[in-house]
Each structure stands twice: as structure tokens, then as C-alpha cells.
């Protein structure tokens, strides 16, 4: 049996939408992007959505729109994809890591206040694997210290914690439509905010800082544009937007199937004392990934053993502060964020997507048990 680590959900209907988009004259950022943005806002409940080329772009532009620059500090987690902390580096600011909670792998909100300095400007929590961080506690800390909050919601499209969703308690929430995310157009992203000024700034920043979009310039009598700020080239185009629009209608049913698979994994692994990252009470996890935690001395052998049985696997993630660039630039060493290190040394992600059959899920569980006990 061969079980891919991931399969995307792009349907014939999505492909038909892309064909329509390709056959129209205007294929860059226009009405289809607007249609996607409006529909995405309805889904998230956050007033403004700006379509971008990636979540990395959304994080970068969030930081810029909030005025974060060289010399500033932004508090984040070392247990995430490097996009999170790299986006901070793009602005010239310094990422300041805080260790994570052992059960969820999320930033430990109780450790945030002790690293706040006069240079701290923002907190950038990541809802790891789809489980929301303690946003109420983080909001409270941000209010007391006058800090911004940018959420990396790349895993958290379906997530809720008590009555809150991404974007409710922050300045911006950043989403990814990369190939392995719950809706995808290959590469893409979006920024959501309830603040109209931020939304307007981001629209300018995504397109070189131009004061008028191509759509404004050509859909009516020609108007000259100006450049008011230095922007980037991060605008989503109509082709990408056309692939995403219908996927929004299927988010829930796909989440329900992933949830069923996770419950099966949890039931089977719990009985066998195989550890996995937990979902705490009062949380609706987006269930984007399912990760087990194994003996660090055997992790790589287990990864390879699963691959030999035809089971696709991934490592999400090795702790960022131990990656070569971060070690060299900031002098990080093993022992500085022990919980993140421990997860990074022990984690294995298993396949989790709606097309998995019950047989395949059983095969994955049996393979994990066999390989671990070898
Ligand atoms: C995928 C991912 C990103 C980056 O998304 P892109 O759209 O590829 O830029 C950022 N943060 C996390 C946690 C991710 O998993």
C-alpha cells in the first residue's frame, strides 16, 4: 500500500472556475479576487480580507502596516514553520522566542511577560496544528503593555477557542493556501482584519505602494496613480482566487472527516501509550495535522520505517532556534527552549486528509504500532 502524506482537494468544479478565469481578459488582481475576499470574510466573520500570494506575505505586511521596523522586538514561538520568524526578520525586527506548552506545542502565554522589554512591539502567536493559543490571556498581556497582536492562522481556518476565532482578539490574522493547507491554490494567502485602516494600508502595500489598482485604472476612465509608501509585490491574482472560491463551501465537511480520522488515531494510540499532541477542552481544533511524539533516539528510524511501509510522513517542526541560520545569527543553543526542542526531536506527522479511506487509516495505525515496537 502507498499512502501519500497529503492530497489536495482541488475539484473538477474548482478547475472549471479556473478555466473561466483564464478565458477572461483580466487575469491579475480584479473582481474574482474581490469575490474571494468577500466570501472569505463571510466565512471567518472578520470584516476585511486582503488576498495575497502567501501567508508569509500576510505576516510581513501585517508587521509593516503596524509600523514594526529595525530595532523592534516581536515575541513568537520556536515551534512553527520558519515563515513566522523569517517574516519578522524581513522587517529588520528581532524575533524573541518563548517556550511552548508541552501538551499543545503552542506558545506558553504564562512565559510571555518575562521577555517583554521597552523594544517589544508585538506578539505573534501561532495556532499550531489548528489548536488555538490562549488568545484571551495574550490579548490581556498585549493590552497591559500596549502591544499589537498578529496571529499566524495558517493551520487554523476552522479553529475556535471558547467563543473566539482567529482575528477576533488580534490586529490581523494571516492565512495560507499553500498545497497542504485545508483550502489551497498551490501558493496563496490572505490577511484578515476588523480594522479598515489596516486593510486599506495592506491593499496598498501588496501592490508596490501604488495608490490605484490596475482594475481602478482600466475599468473606468484612465486615472493616474501615485506611490505613497514603499510596497511589495504580494497581490493575489484572479486565477488563484477562482480556485479558492468554491472550496470555502466545503471547509466544514472536510474538517468533519479529518476530525473523525483524528478521533480514530487518538483512540488507537491512547490504548497503546503512544503520545500525541493534545486538544484541550473548550477548543475546536482545525485538525490540520496529526502529530505523534516518539522516543527522540528512534524518531528518524521510525520515520524511515513508516516510509518503507508506504506511509507518507513529515516533521512539523524541528525547533527554529536550533536551525543553522538562527544559531549562527543569534547564538541560540540547545537547552534554551526545552519543550519546543523536545517536541521538535520527537514529532512525526501522519497523513490527515478527507480522501483517506478507513482501510488506509487502519493501515497507518497498524504500521505506526509495528514500527514503534520493532
Ligand atoms: C504554511 C505555513 C506558513 C507559510 O505559509 P505560506 O503561504 O507558504 O507563506 C506560515 N506559518 C505556518 C505555521 C505554516 O504552516
Account of the 3D structure:
The protein is α/β, with parallel strands linked by helices. The protein is 38% helix and 13% strand. It contains 13 helices and twelve strands. The strands form three sheets. The protein has a seven-stranded mixed beta sheet with strand order 1-8-7-5-4-2-3, sandwiched between helices. It has a three-stranded antiparallel beta sheet with strand order 9-11-12. It has a two-stranded antiparallel ribbon with strand order 6-10. Helix 9 packs parallel to helix 13. The longest helix is centred in the last third of the chain and has 21 residues. It is globular and about 70 Å long. It starts with 11 loop residues before the first helix and ends with a helix. The mean pLDDT is 97. The protein binds pyridoxal-5'-phosphate. Pyridoxal-5'-phosphate binds next to helix 3 and helix 4. The site of pyridoxal-5'-phosphate (PLP) has 14 residues, from helix 3 and helix 4.
Amino acid at each position: 500500500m502507498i499512502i501519500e502524506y497529503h492530497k489536495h482537494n482541488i475539484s473538477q468544479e474548482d478547475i472549471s472556475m479556473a478555466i473561466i478565469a483564464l478565458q477572461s481578459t483580466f487575469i491579475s488582481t480584479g473582481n474574482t479576487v474581490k469575490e474571494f475576499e468577500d466570501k472569505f470574510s463571510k466565512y471567518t466573520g472578520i470584516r476585511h480580507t486582503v488576498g495575497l500570494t502567501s501567508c508569509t506575505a500576510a505576516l510581513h505586511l501585517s508587521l509593516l502596516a503596524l509600523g514594526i521596523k529595525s530595532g523592534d522586538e516581536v515575541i513568537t514561538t520556536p515551534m512553527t514553520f520558519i515563515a513566522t520568524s523569517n517574516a519578522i526578520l524581513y522587517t529588520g525586527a528581532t524575533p524573541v522566542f518563548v517556550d511552548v506548552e508541552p501538551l499543545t506545542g503552542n506558545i506558553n502565554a504564562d512565559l510571555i511577560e518575562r521577555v517583554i522589554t521597552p523594544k517589544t512591539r508585538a506578539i505573534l502567536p501561532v495556532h499550531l496544528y489548528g489548536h488555538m493559543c490562549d488568545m484571551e490571556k495574550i490579548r490581556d498581556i498585549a493590552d497591559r503593555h500596549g502591544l499589537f497582536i498578529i496571529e499566524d492562522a495558517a493551520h487554523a481556518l476552522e479553529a475556535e477557542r471558547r467563543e473566539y476565532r482567529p482575528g477576533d482578539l488580534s490586529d490581523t490574522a494571516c492565512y495560507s493556501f499553500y498545497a497542504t493547507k485545508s483550502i489551497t491554490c498551490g501558493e496563496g494567502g490572505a490577511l484578515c482584519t476588523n480594522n479598515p485602516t489596516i486593510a486599506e494600508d495592506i491593499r496598498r502595500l501588496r501592490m508596490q505602494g501604488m495608490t490605484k489598482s490596475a482594475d481602478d485604472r482600466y475599468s473606468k476612465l484612465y486615472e493616474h496613480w501615485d506611490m505613497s509608501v514603499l510596497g511589495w509585490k504580494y497581490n493575489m491574482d484572479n486565477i488563484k482566487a477562482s480556485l479558492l472560491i468554491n472550496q470555502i463551501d466545503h471547509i466544514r465537511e472536510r474538517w468533519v472527516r479529518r476530525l473523525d480520522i483524528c478521533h480514530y488515531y487518538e483512540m488507537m494510540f491512547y490504548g497503546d501509550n503512544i503520545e500525541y499532541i493534545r486538544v484541550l477542552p473548550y477548543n475546536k481544533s482545525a485538525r490540520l495535522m496529526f502529530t505523534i511524539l516518539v522516543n527522540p533516539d528512534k524518531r528518524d528510524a521510525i520515520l524511515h520505517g513508516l516510509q518503507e511501509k508506504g506511509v507518507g510522513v513529515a516533521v512539523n517542526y524541528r525547533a527554529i532556534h536550533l536551525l543553522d541560520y538562527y544559531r549562527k545569527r543569534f547564538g541560540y543553543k540547545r537547552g534554551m527552549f526545552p519543550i519546543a526542542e523536545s517536541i521538535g526531536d520527537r514529532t512525526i506527522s501522519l497523513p490527515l486528509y478527507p480522501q483517506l479511506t478507513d482501510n488506509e487509516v487502519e493501515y497507518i495505525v497498524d504500521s505506526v504500532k509495528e514500527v514503534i515496537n520493532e
